[in-house]
Write a structure and sequence with these properties.
The complex is a heterodimer of chains A (250) and B (311).
Chain A lengths: L1 E5 L2 E3 L21 E3 L1 H15 L5 E8 L3 H11 L3 E6 L6 H15 L3 E5 L10 H9 L2 E13 L2 E8 L2 E8 L2 E5 L11 H7 L4 E5 L11 E7 L8 E3 L2 H10 L5
Parallel strand pairs in A: 1-4, 1-6, 4-5, 5-11, 6-10, 7-10
Antiparallel strand pairs in A: 2-3, 7-8, 8-9
Chain B lengths: L2 E5 L1 E2 L2 E2 L1 H11 L5 E6 L3 H8 L5 E7 L3 H4 L2 H11 L5 E5 L2 H13 L5 E4 L1 E4 L2 E6 L4 E7 L4 E5 L16 E4 L9 E8 L12 E5 L9 H11 L2 E4 L1 H5 L20 E5 L5 H7 L4 E6 L12 E4 L2 H11 L2
Parallel strand pairs in B: 1-4, 1-6, 4-5, 5-12, 6-11, 7-11, 14-15, 14-16, 16-17, 17-18
Antiparallel strand pairs in B: 2-3, 8-9, 9-10
Helix pairs in contact in B: 4-5, 6-9
Classes of the chains: A alpha/beta (250), B alpha/beta (311).
Chain lengths: 250, 311
């Protein structure tokens, strides 16, 4: 079974972002970048499935400028076998990303396509669902457990607002990861060295026949109103008094 | 212009989150239709019939769990999309699952987690865990919007509306996906996303057992109980307790954060609360930078003391 995993290069989750003064975007120069945390979970799940003998090949895919090869190398160091870099200098919206990934899926013919449920930069939570729609495949979003108990189908536990639910999906399927699916490994030094020799195929967005023009015009990126820190109180009595008589929320 | 809101219901009860999405749709200034599906969807339709500003309610009866599968719900909405300029749903786990699938079927770039509607084409949404707000304008012929419920007041069920109720043919169920079962957390406490007061615990709680302290406090206040990602990852409480960027977004009148340091992704889920109280032994914890009231000290002393003080 072949698995495709999409990985996105984003600002590291621990960085406090800064909005540019001219409100055109977020400061990206000299900012630490990393693989989107949900995509790390996706790569980890694919590697575990290969270790369990369920998967035979893992292809990592990233879309963007030259720098996203770093992200692909991370996926290769975690255990992906090879990588596909879809080259573009455009900043793509989820629909265009899904269209590009569909083209890659048609070339690679995976049984499972795993994506993070959401990228922590644009917080859209759309690409996996869109890819499933474009391919006409089943979708299992916000997955916390995958089981291959039945031929041709997958049993998927997903996190929902009220708890969790279990679906049976026909394969091939698109799966998006939630936090509790697994805990991603750190790549070992020997594996990081080995990853340097693994192949990365490059293909341009235009060669995939995908129009990357945005549908949304960004009018401005602004800083949200800042919350003022309040006071530290000496004891519980004082807190109750403030909540009752000052904030009036009790 | 005409807007449709996909309204969630369970056993004939309309979900609170959808009442906020209806409110967002009304802000567009267009006639609003409601789309409901599932068994007892007609009972739910009666519940929202008097809501002001609703033109008609379209109801597809059928088995709820199957109709809510993304493959089926997206097909249902795709079938009627040509009637609308805007299709909205609350950004719940159901809305987030269905809307992007629908958007791709219609070749539309969806706008997620809308927090303000500036015009029928112009919307504001948070990015980077709410640390930036993007104002975007859509050129798609249909706008597909998921709505952050904390940003819009719920509509009242007691209006003067007289919406017509019409039957909608349910879609042919897809063989791709099947519903097997669910494990839902049952609680007597209010729902986390709509509670007036929320008491949340973090890694500092130390164990799931210790969440009892928070439950006692919550019960005294009529509050819901939430948690940080750290507490959920540690297995103290189930995933549906998680408040944060990728968990639940809450904005209660009072949010009490106990043993929570205040990671960026947690703040993203609660920083719009009206009043924030932090209880933490580390006086340098980032949570104190946004808390209105802070107590520095041992939560195992302070929380029971607070519960007792509320008697």
């Amino acid at each position: 079974m072949k698995i495709c995993v999409a990985v996105k290069r984003v600002i590291d989750a621990n960085v406090k972002i800064r909005v540019k003064a001219d409100q055109t975007g977020v400061e990206l120069t000299n900012v630490k970048m990393a693989m989107n945390p949900f995509d790390e979970i996706g790569v980890e799940e694919a590697v575990r499935l290969r270790e369990a003998g369920t998967a035979t090949e893992i292809v990592a895919i990233s879309i963007g400028g030259a720098a996203c090869q770093e992200t692909l190398r991370t996926a290769l160091a975690m255990g992906a076998d090879r990588a596909v870099h879809v080259e573009t200098d455009l900043s793509l919206e989820p629909l265009a990303v899904a269209k590009a990934l569909k083209q890659v899926a048609e070339r690679e013919q995976p049984t499972l396509f795993i994506l993070g449920k959401q990228a922590i930069d644009d917080d859209a939570n759309q690409t996996g669902q869109m890819l499933a729609a474009l391919l006409g495949w089943a979708q299992g979003t916000f997955a916390s457990k995958l089981e291959f108990s039945e031929p041709g189908r997958i049993r998927l536990t997903r996190e929902v607002d009220g708890g969790s639910e279990i679906l049976s999906l026909a394969l091939p399927a698109v799966v998006t990861t939630d936090l509790r699916l697994n805990e991603p490994r750190y790549a070992s030094l020997p594996n990081i060295m080995k990853a340097k020799k693994k192949p990365i195929d490059k293909i341009s967005l235009a060669d995939l026949g995908v129009d990357g023009a945005p549908r949304l015009k960004i009018l401005k990126i602004a800083e949200p109103p800042k919350r003022q820190g309040g006071v530290k109180l000496g004891n519980v009595g004082e807190l109750v008094d403030r909540l009752r008589n000052e904030a009036k929320v009790l | 212009m005409r807007a449709a809101v996909f309204v969630e219901q369970e056993a004939g009860q309309v979900k609170e989150a959808s009442l906020h999405a209806i409110s967002a749709a009304r802000a567009l200034g267009a006639p609003v239709d409601l789309i409901l599906c599932g068994s007892a969807a007609n009972a739910a339709a009666q519940q929202v019939r008097k809501v002001d500003g609703i033109a008609r309610i379209r109801v597809a009866e059928g088995e709820t769990a199957s109709l809510l599968l993304a493959e089926n719900a997206a097909a249902l909405l795709e079938g009627i999309a040509a009637d609308y300029t805007h299709i909205l749903a609350a950004a719940t786990s159901v809305g987030k699952n269905i809307l992007p699938r629908l958007a791709a079927l219609l070749d539309v770039q969806q706008i997620s987690e809308v927090v303000a509607i500036e015009s029928p084409e112009r919307f504001v949404r948070p990015i980077y865990a709410g640390n930036a707000l993007a104002t975007v304008e859509s050129s798609d012929r249909i706008k597909i919007l998921s709505v952050r419920m904390t940003a819009f007041e719920a509509v009242s069920l007691e209006g003067n509306g007289e919406a017509a109720i019409e039957a909608l043919s349910p879609p042919t169920l897809s063989p791709l996906s099947g519903f097997i079962g669910e494990q839902l957390s049952r609680s007597e406490r209010p729902d986390l996303t709509s509670a007036r007061i929320v008491v949340s615990g973090g890694r500092g709680m130390g164990s799931g057992e210790n969440f009892k302290l928070l439950e006692e406090l919550a019960d005294k206040l009529g509050a819901a109980v939430g948690a940080s990602r750290a507490a959920v990852d540690a297995g103290f409480v189930p995933n549906d307790y998680q408040v944060g960027q990728t968990g639940k977004i809450v904005a209660p009148d009072l949010y009490i954060a106990v043993g929570i340091s205040g990671a960026i992704q947690h703040l993203a889920g609660m920083k719009d609360s009206k009043v924030i109280v932090a209880i933490n032994k580390d006086e340098e914890a980032p949570i104190f930078q946004i808390a209105d009231y802070g107590l520095v000290g041992d939560l195992f002393m302070l929380v029971p003391e607070l519960t007792a003080a509320l008697k």
